Amino acid sequence: MTLPLFGLGTFRLQGQAVIDSVSQALELGYRAIDTAQIYNNEAEVGLAVAESGVPREQLFLTTKIWTDNYAADKLIPSLRASLDKLRTDAVDLTLIHWPAPGHPVQPEEYLTALAEAKSLGLTRQIGVSNFNIALTRRAIDILGPGEIATNQIELSPHLQNRRLAAFLKEAGIAVTSYMTLGYGKVLQDPTIQNIARQHSASPAQVALSWAMNKGYSVIPSSTKRENLAGNLLAEQLRLSDEDIRAIDGLECGGRLVNPAGLAPEWDD
Predict the structure, then answer these.
(1) 78-110 tens-digit pLDDT
(2) For the chain, does the N or the C end have fewer beta carbons within 10 angstroms?
(3) Catalytic residues
(4) Which domains are delineated in the chain?
């Protein structure tokens, strides 16, 4: 099972806003939806999916285990609860949301429990999120090569995570980019805007296309149908080698997500 290159993120969307976003995205042709236990919107995502009429086998659903549920006796029950909310017997991908250094539950415990969830058929693939190189190596040692489907990380033209991305590629682990648009900051970048004008595209389409050109999966979110439709067109945008090099030059260490107690020591 391969990871979709394009999907819908639901971070910070709750209630009717997430129902409308998922519903409209599915109408427009989105087939991958990313959520998490801590987003507190799995039930709404499940409702929107159920009412969409899109057959479950055509969808790719991802959720993430929150730190409160890392203990071996909590992880699988919490995932079952997530499945109930999402109205499905299994998700396609389950991630450990944050490594949370100093957490009393160690990776050996929560990753082993995650692997057990896969063996029970509760999730088709497993992976991690926000893991640095050292922690990803540790996860590989625990789970074995080929078991980690993806590492979902903050990655944008302003924060390219090159060392980590190169390591993941070598290890055969897909990169899922979140914050690809940098809370909108990337859209204001003059280089991105100039390339967008040259292609009669939007800045969002340019940034998303750049990431997919690198082989990264992207999961942008929006509550506006116009933006949802526009973002989806990024799959059809073909940037030139010159465009890619220009965007590659925008790296500036622009990290936006770095929660104390959850984030590891970053590689870049």
Answers:
(1) 999 999 999 999 999 999 999 999 999 999 999
(2) N
(3) 39
(4) 8-248 (3.20.20.100)
